[in-house]
Amino acid sequence: MNPLAQQLNETLQKESPNVYAMLSNLGKAIYFPKEGILSQSAEAKTKATKFNATIGIATEGGKPMHLKLIQDTLSAYNPKDIYEYAPPAGKPELRSAWRAKMFKDNPSLEGVSFGNPIVTNALTHGLSIVADLFADEGDAVVIPNKNWENYELTFGIRRGAEIVEYPLYNESMQFNSAALRDALLAQKGKGKAIVLLNFPNNPTGYTPGVRECEEIVAAIHDAAEAGIHVVAVTDDAYFGLFFEDSVQESLFSKLAALHPRVLAVKVDGATKEEYVWGFRVGFITFASESQATLAALEQKTLGIIRSTISSGPHPSQTFVLHALQSPEFEAQKAEKFDIMKGRANRVKSLLDSGRYGDTWEYYPFNSGYFMCLKLTTVTAEDVRQHLLNEYGIGTIALGQTDLRVAFSCIEEEYLEELFDTIHKAVTEVAAR
């Protein structure tokens, strides 16, 4: 094993032996090289005042070389903030700005010890880092039965982990914390579990209330007390889009110092929150009382980044930083929130109007981009195909009964027509 990896492992064994026990084989072996191209280039950047012939970019006139036709479309930005490589951990100013945003959005983080957010190439990349660091073949990844299909690819296919599902809703159509607890305690023989908490939930658009979240935290605490090492990951992709009386903060702050056998990891980003899907800017943040542990986890994360994408795109990091620093940011974001909330409320009023009879039920939703219909008489795939082929309407079929509708991309004035047409399609398919 590389001496740098060994040194990081020894730090974790000393400072946080439970965190060390959570690492995958890759997580134990990975490290960020201190001696090499990046470190020598960083040193030269501060000391090479005459010529800097280290890093693999081209310069011209003291600036990064670039094509005028590209720069003409980006004239508001200095070439050094666009064309140079961003550091593997991300643009330092962006990391600081996102950390400040985390405190503003999550007042409960005050007094909580957590690391500086590390920039990822959006949330999928952040989740894949979690998988690489902590998931070995056969490890349990605990998720609800209503989940984002990419979890299977990221943890199951890529890392060989076992996907353990539990029902998202209980009989009262609230979050099924009892089922989560059972799924976690069932991993006692393995001694380890990775739990993914995605609120607002994709695909249902559900976020639990305060009492439900207390039960979630208690379930994870019970698992830790039972001797299970729990990597508790908050997938906060749709964070902030809370339209009703649900929790308004990430569970990360409640999990951060919950138990020595719980490692809280926050995966979030500008992708959905700031409506910049193609920018691919996300973050991964670890919580620990030990600064040495946080430093070791950051170094291992940088090793994963360096060995996969090297570093994230610099232009989009600059764009997001510019937005976060703008005095117009909060007002413009609030404007978009109101639009999204209006769409969600309109969908709910249509579904509660009684006009669609018993054609379907719908899963509780109060946040995010989506909602799910539960079809009662026909299969979701048949309806999806009929909507697409006969009416030019796209939806997502999930399993036999569930049809996901993204109200996020439908103007409020067209939602009535959309759901009327879905109802018509269900009726037509049922009459075949």
Low-confidence stretches: none
Strand order of the largest sheet: 3-9-8-7-6-4-5
Helix-strand category: alpha/beta
Mean pLDDT: 95
The count of strands amounts to: 13
How many domains make up the 3D coordinates?
2
**What's the CATH architecture of the largest domain?**
3-Layer(aba) Sandwich
Chain oligomer state:
single chain
CA gyration radius, whole angstroms: 23 Å
Q: How much of the polypeptide forms β-strand, as a percent range?
A: 5-15%
Defining traits:
single chain; 432 residues; Aspartate Aminotransferase, domain 2; Aspartate Aminotransferase, domain 1; 2 domains; 7-stranded mixed β-sheet; 4-stranded antiparallel β-sheet; 17 helices; 13 strands; globular
Description:
- This protein is of the alpha/beta class.
- Helix content is 44%, strand content 14%.
- The strands form 3 sheets. It has a 7-stranded mixed sheet with strand order 3-9-8-7-6-4-5, with helices on both faces. Strands 10-11-13-12 form a 4-stranded antiparallel sheet, covered by helices on one side.
- Helix 1 runs antiparallel to helix 13, helix 9 runs parallel beside helix 10 and helix 16 (380-391) crosses helix 17.
- The longest helix has 23 residues, at 329-351.
- The chain is globular, with a radius of gyration of 23 Å.
- The relative contact order is 0.12.
